[in-house]
């Protein structure tokens, strides 16, 4: 079957199935709306081909070329596209379901509403690519290269990112949901309003990264490096940051409610208006930190060190302070008088009025 016959069959609404079309050139042909099932397209040339709303099911497309193809709402299911090239191509609404995309090249592509579901993306290249409103769900990304990529409003869902390459990438409103990211090198990168929900971030390095208004709800962040970060209004609610390095971080107005901060190091950190309500900060270091108007109500700061810290109306209402080390406590409020009186009243046993 030659290219013209394939185009005719597609235009007649027939399914192309079970054919071996290795090395075929379909460049510039119109195959929009075509359905291809179990076709061998190894080393096929789709450059400039119109594949809008086409469907590939169980096909082999190893080393195929899609450069400049029209791929709007095209879908690939259970297909092999290893070593294929989409380099520099617009990919609006493209869907990959359970595909093998190892070593595939998406460099400099423009991806809008792109979806990868249950795919193998190992060694795939997204260098200098734009991913907007896209989703990568339950995929493997070993050595997947996102160098200098731009990611906007994109979601990584339950994916293993431990060995992907984010060097120089920019992240805007990106959602990482239950991903594995232990030990990653995010030094100096910019994350704008990103969400890290229940991620595994143990030993990840965010040194000097920008994390303004990022959320780390419920994430495991033991021994994470947040030194010198710019993370104002960031939220670490219910996160585990035991032994974290937060030295000299700009963390004003950050939230650490119910966080585990055992032996965390906040030396010289800027924490004005930060909220540590109900956090567990046993043995944490707040030496020389700026804690003006911070709130440690109901927190456990036993054995913590506040030497040299600066306070101004810093609230420690009902905080546990066993063997806490202090320098100058001027500006510390051990209890909120009005709140304390209200709590004392509520704790009184109920006594019915006599009849």
TrEMBL record:
<dbReference type="InterPro" id="IPR051082">
    <property type="entry name" value="Pentapeptide-BTB/POZ_domain"/>
</dbReference>
<feature type="region of interest" description="Disordered">
    <location>
        <begin position="321"/>
        <end position="355"/>
    </location>
</feature>
<dbReference type="Pfam" id="PF13599">
    <property type="entry name" value="Pentapeptide_4"/>
</dbReference>
<dbReference type="Pfam" id="PF00805">
    <property type="entry name" value="Pentapeptide"/>
</dbReference>
<dbReference type="Pfam" id="PF13576">
    <property type="entry name" value="Pentapeptide_3"/>
</dbReference>
<protein>
    <submittedName>
        <fullName>Uncharacterized protein YjbI with pentapeptide repeats</fullName>
    </submittedName>
</protein>
<dbReference type="InterPro" id="IPR001646">
    <property type="entry name" value="5peptide_repeat"/>
</dbReference>
